[in-house]
Write a sequence for this structure.
């Protein structure tokens, strides 16, 4: 991150929250949706990069305190909010006290953790949907709608980078998604929306310590959570779905939705004009296309 951008964030946070010890501000990560920074006293702020992300932060602020008591591991509890519209923080920011633990690395993904993650998401999915919708959590668009929105943004970018065989495989999978009549058949649940390993915190022992980054919170197919576990390898994925108690239909949807998930990553990178994120999203898509 350029130093000037970090300095600007620091000044904006100090003006908004003079009671906090902000400086020196530390850059933690930059993702599709937010720039993540930490203040001197251990408060994490996620600075939105677009209007939809800012809207997601608003939903988090209302919904996460309602969900937290039902879950077997900690989640962020927002305490600070900057509304969109400022010069330095045009899309606003949301802040919470830093949770203990370290982001999960693929090498640390053991079967015991798969079982803990499955229990966490099973608890989340068991919360009555009405509790989320009352807090403003919206319903995820249907797969057919997502595909239509994604194709025009993704395929030109993918064609420039992917090999001919990879591109044909991507087109084949998109056609398979279009034709898969089983995808709309599921019981909707409250879902995290982006539970890849970078949003999972673990203790030194490898046990689950918390789950971060809830700006994609929505009501939809529980298989979306399972799809993100494919990043951690087939063994971890199979341990997750077995512990979750998933049937073959959910397992099938998870593999199908994994392609759509990666296409969404490419689309967001194209929309925000971030070449580095685009390269990373296309790398992940390539890896997925290599899975039979």
């Amino acid at each position: 991150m350029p130093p000037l951008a970090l300095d600007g964030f620091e000044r904006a946070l100090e003006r908004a929250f003079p009671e906090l010890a902000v400086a020196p501000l530390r850059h933690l990560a930059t993702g599709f949706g937010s720039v993540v920074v930490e203040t001197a006293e251990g408060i994490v702020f996620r600075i939105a990069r677009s209007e939809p992300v800012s809207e997601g932060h608003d939903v988090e602020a209302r919904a996460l305190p309602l969900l937290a008591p039902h879950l077997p591991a900690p989640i962020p509890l927002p305490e600070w909010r900057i509304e969109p519209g400022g010069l330095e923080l045009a899309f606003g920011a949301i802040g919470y006290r830093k949770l203990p633990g370290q982001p999960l690395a693929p090498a640390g993904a053991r079967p015991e953790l798969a079982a803990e993650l499955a229990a966490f998401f099973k608890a989340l999915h068991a919360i009555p949907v009405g509790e989320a919708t009352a807090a403003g959590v919206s319903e995820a668009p249907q797969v057919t709608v997502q595909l239509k929105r994604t194709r025009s943004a993704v395929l030109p970018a993918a064609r420039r980078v992917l090999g001919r065989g990879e591109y044909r495989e991507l087109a084949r999978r998109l056609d398979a998604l279009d034709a898969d009549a089983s995808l709309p058949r599921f019981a909707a649940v409250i879902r995290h929306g982006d539970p890849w390993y970078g949003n999972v915190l673990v203790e030194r022992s490898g046990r689950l310590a918390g789950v971060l980054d809830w700006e994609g919170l929505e009501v939809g197919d529980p298989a979306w959570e399972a799809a993100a576990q494919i990043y951690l390898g087939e063994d971890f994925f199979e341990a997750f779905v077995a512990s979750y108690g998933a049937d073959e239909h959910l397992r099938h949807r998870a593999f199908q939705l994994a392609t759509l998930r990666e296409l969404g990553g490419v689309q967001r990178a194209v929309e925000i004009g971030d070449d580095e994120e685009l390269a990373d999203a296309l790398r992940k898509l390539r890896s997925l296309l290599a899975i039979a």
